[in-house]
Amino acid sequence: MQKTLLLSLPAVILAGQLTAQTSAPVFQTMTCVKAQPGKFTDYRDFVTSTGPKLARVAIDAGSYTTWTLLQSLRPSGEEARCDFVISTLSEGAPPEPRNAGGQGLEQALAKAGVKMSAADYLGKRDATSRLVSQEIWSMRIRVGTPQKGNYVFLNYMKVKDGPGYSKFESEVWRPMAEGWVKEGSQSAWVVASRVVPSGTDLAYAAYSADIYPNWTAVFKPRNTQAMFGKVHGGKDYQETMGKLGALRDLARRELYVVVDRTAKM
Questions:
Q1: How many domains is the chain built from?
Q2: pLDDT tens for residues 157-203?
Q3: Are 74 and 170 contained in the same domain?
Q4: How far is Cα 151 from Cα 249, in angstroms, rounded to an integer?
Q5: pTM higher than 0.85
């Protein structure tokens, strides 16, 4: 596992740059973590007992604005690429990676009230988990606010038409998502584009996240056409939705639960 201060705060940053909807870009760094064999519960206990405390120190220092721990539900076991995804959002730029074993970690642990040395902290982290990947994303649209205990569908997209896909999400789907959040059937909805890594050999370049308040809401059928008619009066549902296939393909869909979340006050 890379020894950087960013990872030692165990944080997966959902990262990305905003479109013109806000004055400052918001970056998200996603860190995908796999538990060592037989250490799933040990790692979960470790990260839930130390992560929020260290996140509060980093948030108070202005390094990022939110820290979120996601646990994979489906797929699970060996089929799951990530057992956990730890996410932070940062305004302007993601935190610069630094040496995880240096004085900065010792100071952060002390400020957080975590009674471990940096060496013990890193040893426990590496004994219970391994780093799979870290990606930086640009947050393009955010509707609502995720909460602890929410369920998250991460929908990874292979984009065929970047401008067309962005326009569809912003002009067609966003008003619908706002309607579902307002009525309470969804907690939040997010769209992001990948910044690093990038390139034509990657399976996906964007994701959308459908975030639900509880398990029942995840699987409750909803009438998409009815919400479309409510927020897009006068537009043809079949014609508008029929264009989506030419804009993107769904490459992969995964289900997570929000285990913990710490945000800027």
A1: 2
A2: 999 999 999 999 999 999 999 999 999 999 999 999 999 998 888 88
A3: no
A4: 23
A5: yes
